[in-house]
Amino acid sequence: MCHPPLPASILVVLSPAIIIPAILNGLLTGAVYALVALGLTLVYGVLHIINFAHGALLTAAMFAAFFAYQFGIDPYVAIFLLAPAFFAFGYALQRVVIGPAAHGDDRNMLLITLGIAVIIENALLYTFRADTRTIDVPYAFKSIDFGFTFLAVPRLVGFAAVFAVALVLWLIMTFTDTGKAIRAVAKEKLGAELAGIDVAHIYAVTFGLGTACVAIAACLLIPTYYVNPSAGNAFVLVAFTIVVLGGMGSVPGALIGGLVIGVVESLSSLFLGDSLGQVGIFLIFIVVLLVRPSGLFGARA
Amino acid sequence: MAEPLLLVGRVSHRFGGLLAVNAASLFASESRITALIGPNGAGKTTLFAIISGFLKPSEGKVRYAGEDITGEPPYRLARRGIARTFQIVQPFAGLSVRENILVGAHLRQRSREAALAVVERVASEVGLTGVLDRPADTLTVAARKRLELARALATEPKLLLLDEVLAGLNPSEIRDIVPVIRGLCTRGIAIVMIEHVMQAVMSLAEHVFVLAEGSIIAEGTPAQVAADPVVVEAYLGHGAAARLGGAHAH
Amino acid sequence: MKAFAPIVLVVALFAAVPLVVHSNVILNFLVVALMIALAGQGWNVLGGYGGQYSFGHAAFFGTGAYVTAILQVRYGVNAWVGFATGIAAGALVGAVIGALTFRSGLRGSYFALVTLAFAEVLRISASVAPITGAGVGTLIKLDLRAQAFQFQSRATFYWISLALVALSLLIAKLIERSRFGVWLVAVRENEDAAQALGVDVATVKSAAMVISGAITAAAGCFYAQYFLFVDSGIAYGTWISIEVLLTPIIGGVGTVFGPLFGAMVVKALGEGAQLVTGDAPGLDLVVYGAVLILVIAFMPRGLIGGLAQARQRLMRRPAVEVHHG
Q1: Could you list the residue range(s) of the whole structural domain that residue C182 is in?
Q2: Angle made by CA atoms A273, A278, A282, in degrees to the nearest 5
Q3: Cα C244 to Cα C194: distance, rounded to the nearest angstrom
Q4: Which residues of chain C are within 8 Å of residue A275 when distances are taken between CB atoms?
Q5: Position B249 pLDDT exceeds 50
Q6: What is the mean pLDDT of residues B79-104?
Q7: What are A42-77's pLDDT values in tens digits?
């Protein structure tokens, strides 16, 4: 529901005491958006397909984090369990299902990732019903006093974690053989193949990394967010917008785009209310696709 | 003197910082075969892309039949009568040879029957009658080249741009297709061909333009161009003309 | 006119069914399957023949459904007029989306994404806009008269949906044999080569989208008249975007009968899943997703394509027959 602001409250809203926390919170939320977008852009940059299953994988990871907590595993600890597990799952998906079934046709790959999305989401729906669940960690509502504003602990941890993940990814890409192989395949697949790189393996590793990103994002979200079979979708549409805005395949684009969108969303919720915020993001998305599909930092359109 | 059918005036194209084509000019007339040659990477295919509307030049103009066609999209140029083949052949892989040529034929023929008749005619001109019902992706390289040619011919062009139509063919295949190309020329079509196969250039072309590093460095009859030391240098490297003992220097 | 004989035959066979079968359960199944076949034929024109895979065809289905319903409920417009207007609205939406996306040169993944986005924008807007009844939806009053496009007999609805499907089969066949169809398929196979041969790719794609939108919208209009209730999840939900692409892919993309064949299979699978699991939501879509992947992996040309290949091998005939007359 949209409550148009009254003139007097605009003055209140525009005061720094409200805007600055909104911006800061936008940055914190944006960091997690960026992590989800990072997984998506990584897969696009190397495999050159849009992974329509990305949202469903996020939802599955959120359910996994939820259930890990039921077994007493704190979400931040669960990161170290779920990231490798989902990496393996993503690797297997690409190696065993997507790659072979697509016969190399991009259009087929689109459909297959769509099929996977449908299967995962609806399997979750069928198993767990549409109920919304949350977890109750002791630090969920703790916040730190920065003097001019309070910021929630889980979101600060999330922010820091995202940059840690980005750093780790950068290290992998720059210094390991696999990382170099990934960059080679992204740039020139045929050349990489001729140089002896196992492209199917690299594709699967990349897909696995993208899925692992999503698993980490899920663990960072679960302390403060709810879980239901369509939770991932809400994030993934934002992630699509970020990836298109920042440029398909661009890692810095995903990070910066994520922060920007986080702030935009935060500020527009302030002025326009929540549900219109979603439509606003879609409209930005459509406009960017039509006007500048290569994005701000983009490579190929 | 009447303006030639195709007049390319000082056309340039930049890819980012790279000047792929630099103030290149050339012309082509009806019933003549004009060749565009040059070492690899000279920008020949880029120039073709500009002429056929797939790229917009950063500078310069392209004129056809007395009109400025610079920047018009490829489909409109096809309707004006400019047809091109691609260096890397692009058949409609999922369709048969007949269905491939049909696409071209439908440019001028509205009715399916009339278009199919054009397909039969063009196929026999080019020598593909035997394989009309085969899927295009089962053809040999030589046959695919003929298919590229047939498709372009089906659009009843006045200007035909052939991009390395002889590449990948063995000598006997070349020997078979050369008369087909010469035959087109006698029908009044203006042909511009990018070619590396020098024997074909020498025997087919009446006028040759040489493109190197984006610029036209020479033009003339095949004999003139072959004797030009600037051309020799472009192909064989700096100082090659002198090393070849001045026998080719005039 | 020999080419249209298969269509006449199939439609005649289908038309005879209510004369023999009187079970409402079976008739209901068939009515819904025919409606999905109609919607799928719409997708087939753009995706099967044109090669542009839309993941948001709900945009057309929902528009048809809502326009039909809203015109009747809020403006007292005659149901048949509402139906026709719904189809026109679908065509209009197709024209708009086509103009925006194809003139920008969007293809492949991007096109799929943008169509998904359009459908979602419509869904969210419909879920809050007062004119659609927002979350509550729009309910068409029960009024069992022919003028109100509502019928006591299920058989009548069946014949109407069959008539619409027959029309869509005809349209597909006409496209196949026309210059537009040749151009459309060329665009699917290789856009650059098509351009070089004089095909105005953007216009051809847009025209395909208008036709596609109109046909799928017709299915939406029919939904509204048959079920008498529309809300944003029904109209613009991903379920219909998925079913609409699933039916031609399973039946055979780019073929006249693919969507009809595929719709029967998809709906049968859905019913089968329900029998096994009862009413728990989600399992039918899981089955659809699995079938989608299996078909792409093992039978990319769908059932009809698979049959054609088998027949070819048996009779060793050439892959293509030339149609005269």
Answers
A1: 2-237
A2: 140
A3: 27
A4: 124, 128
A5: no
A6: 92
A7: 998 888 888 989 999 999 999 999 989 888 888 888
Handedness of CA B151, B154, B155, B158 (dihedral sign): positive
**Alpha helices of chain A — where are they, by DSSP H?**
7-13, 16-47, 54-70, 75-92, 99-102, 106-128, 153-175, 177-187, 189-194, 199-221, 231-246, 251-272, 274-291
| Integer Rg of chain B from CA | 18
Mean pLDDT of B93-117: 94
What's the length of chain C? 325
What contacts C247, CB < 8 A, 6 or more positions away?
C36, C37, C39, C40, C43, C258, C259, C262, C263, C266
Distance in angstroms (rounded) separating the CA atoms of residues C99 and C108: 16
CA angle A216, A218, A219 (to 5 degrees): 65
Compare CB distances from A237 to C100, C120, C283 and report the shortest one's residue: C120
Go through the domains of chain B in sequence order and give each one's CATH number.
1-80+196-250 (3.40.50.300)
Residues of B in contact with C185 (CB under 8 A): 92, 95, 99
pLDDT category of residue A301 using cuts at 50, 70 and 90: very low
Distance CA(C73)–CA(C71), nearest Å, equals 6
Helix (H, G, I), strand (E, B) or coil at C138: strand
Mean pLDDT on C280-284: 79
For residue B113, list chain C residues with Cβ-Cβ distance below 8 A: 324
Please state, in angstroms and as integers, the Cα–Cα distance from residue C53 to each residue in B16, B229, C127, C233, following that order: 32, 55, 26, 22
Residue B127 CA to residue B180 CA, distance in Å, equals 9
Q: Is residue C245 part of a domain?
A: no
Instruction: Provide the b/e sequence for B80-115 (b: ≥16 CB within 10 Å).
Output: bbbbbbbbebbbbebbbbbbbbbbbbbbebeebeeb
| Structure tokens, C69 | 């319903």
Pairwise CA distance, residues C186 & B34, whole Å: 30
| Tokens 């809020």, residue located | C74
Residue A9 Cα to chain centre, angstroms: 34
Report the gap between the CA of B76 and the closest CA in chain C (Å).
Answer: 6
Chain B residue nearest residue C201, CA to CA: B75
Go through C49-65 and write b for each residue having 16 or more CB atoms within 10 A of its CB, e for each that does not.
bbbbbbbbbbbbbbbbb
pLDDT tens digits for range A138-185: 777 777 777 777 778 888 888 899 989 988 988 888 899 999 899 888
Q: Which CATH architecture has domain A7-291?
A: Orthogonal Bundle (1.10)
Q: Are C322 and B96 in contact (CB under 8 A)?
A: no
Answer whether C286 sits within 8 Å of A107, measured CB to CB.
no
Cross-chain Cβ contact C190/B93 below 8 Å: yes
So what's the ipTM on this one? 0.88
Gap between the Cα atoms of B19 and C67, Å rounded: 55
Mean model confidence pLDDT for chain A: 83
The token duo for B111 is 């009715």
- The tokens describing C16, both together, are 């005879």
Q: How many domains does chain C have?
A: 1
